[in-house]
User: Fold Phenylacetic acid degradation protein PaaN from Aquimarina aggregata.
Amino acid sequence: MKKLENYVNGKWVAGSGDGLIMHDAVTGEVIGMSTTEGLDIPEVLQYGRTKGGEILSKMTFQERGNMLKKLALYLTKRKEEFYELSYRSGATRIDSWIDIEGGFGNLFANASLRKLFPNQSYHVEGDPIDLSRGGRFMAHHILVPKRGVAVHINAFNFPIWGMLEKCAVNWMAGVPAVVLPAPQTAYLTEAVVRVIIHSGILPEGALQLLSGMTKTILDTVASQDVVTFTGSAHTGRILKAHPRLIEESVPFTMEADSLNASVLGKDAVPGTPEFDLFIKEVRKEMTVKSGQKCTAIRRIIVPSDLVEDVQIALGQQLDKVTIGDPRLKEVRMGALASKKQVESFKDNVAEIAKTAQLVYGDLDKIETIGADAQKGAFVSPVLLREDNPFKNTGVHEIEAFGPVSTIMPYDSLEDAITLSQMGKGSLVSSIFTYDDQIAKEYVVGAASHHGRILIGNRENARQSTGHGSPLPMLTHGGPGRAGGGEEMGGMRGIKHYMQRCAIQGTPTTLTEVTGIYQANSAYKKSEQHPFSYHWEDIQPGMSIKTHKRTVTDTDIINFGNLTWDHFYAHTDITSLDGSIFEKRTAHGYFILAAAAGLFVYPNKGPVAANYGLEECRFLRPIYHNDTVYVRLTCKQKIDRDHRGKELPSGIVKWFVEVFDQEDELTAIATILTMVQKKSPFVQVNRSNIEGYLSKLNEGIKPKWGIMTAQHMIEHVEKTIRIGAGEIQDFEIATPEKYLEKVQEMVYNHKPMPEGHQHPLMKEGIVEDLVHENLIAAKTKLLEAFDEFEAYFKENPEAITKNAVFGDMNKFEWDLLNVKHLNHHFEQFGLFD
Assistant:
């Protein structure tokens, strides 16, 4: 019998012993078995802390985010291979989509968070705090990666999503993971981990997998580790009380199955869009994943006079649910994960039915399509009705993990809120109403007992992600029975794997520690104007002091006429009595504009654009005939992804301080500029081309490819002549729909890939040589370059085509020639 393997300590190994047998949920066939017996679990944890943790913790947020994005793209290209395995868990195509592509989506979503973090390995949180009147002693908060591992104990219902929604967050924080999937569906988790490890995208030690029951995993966790658990509330409480967690104060996040409620507003009567939406949502939450969702609707709370209507409408919807082999298109609901789950489901439904009435479905009878109901783990959707939910509390305490829900009545909205709270804490609740006052009253009353509340109505129906969909940017978790923890939630989730530390010191020291300029910090004198530096060369604290400007009456009047801002303090000096102004006052925005005129560098340079204004304060009035000057200081740098047809750049935040003639601070602002990054390529001109060509001889062999030195020179010459329009008798090889994206590649700083096949060259065959020898080829290349420059000097607006990148202007050809020459000069070691 096939054993699942564990990925630990950098290798795939099988556990010893028989382990637990895994069955196909549809056919009952044995898939294999999972075991972790014989593995040194403490060694596995330590390997993650040292091997994976050392690398991840030193990566910047941008590096981690781009790593996640790359992994998400890699997995998405291979998604289809996971669907066939997912069917064996009883999941339909839609069910599998939630698990597979929802999991990959978590990677994408968390990767995008890199834009909210600084370009360093740790985060600076909140605003600085002045601890002294003189401003020489201050504090700030930083968050650094914990130096342990994230131990994820996952549930069986989402073997891919459950792993990736957690790992994406801890990887972004700089912490490695050890994943323990539930044995029933561990085969699917193992398949995905194999692809992840094979990709080589993650650093070694960032992900380890224990494919089987591991009862001793918590025995050696340490204070820097983080443990998360998803599963039953009963099991979660046992784990939460583990002595080692208490002894080492290990953070423990529990996300437990809960008795989530959906409420129908009194205004949502039959015939309204909200009533229809409610019915469809309840049916969906009962049957998606065969009801095996921690966010599924278990309690249906409806107005007393609408119970019959809801019961009938739900029954009609459930009649449309076809059950059977999840591979079949006509099947809408598959099987539970295992026969054991079927037994548990039936037992718990029977418990609820001791007081509630079964009004739809049959625990013993089921019709299936394309599958044997006796061999697979199939059950029928079950709808119950509890007419006395305040007295009979079993419906608020017992969860049957499957396609079941219970209708219960309420008289007042206050009663509905109370019923929702009787679940003692839920992951999610929802209310369907078109009355915003009803929505407000329910949300405010019920929020204390729920981690998330969805308000559904006709206006958001098309865009709504639904009651049961946790989203990466929102908190997932809930109080009480739901576990009392939080997962995901954007930046909040990442911070769960980081240690917050308050730091105290001088502003100058804290500027160095945080990478953010702190007010009153010592300035770093800039040798030249800061706007003349590329993004990499700008440092927080880099500063200049500008020359001065006197503000005149004419300036104020002209600015008012230009902007139509005729506020009395700028225009009517007879109305100043009782105001804070003594005489005609300059507009605050004129002061900012004048400040920009003082600090802006007029020459063309790396600063590509003004990116915006983040904050500004006008501290003291500036009157006519006052004189101002500016202190411009780099406050912070933020990395930025390359996008579109623009040169790679980052964002620089500049702290602007405006002083008057008495050196009093009168205004402050933070402005943002887009600053271009340095090109990693050797720039191309005739002189350095000639210099590098002088190093090339026939004896030099390429580092890759089959071209000789002369073949390479003739190939480059041909490309330059194409740019000059001498050769245009070819078709553009790139399809029109991809051309714009491909053209963007000319602008980025990524080198050309080794071994790329040019569409105008025959694969595996070098072209016939044209010139007599290498010396003649070099001469012709230089002639081609001169002719290229002359052509565009005479025809500056000319457009010529390239076989890969389509129509290009001179600027784009220059970018391409730099990349192309760097690529081939590197190929022949001319830069060595």
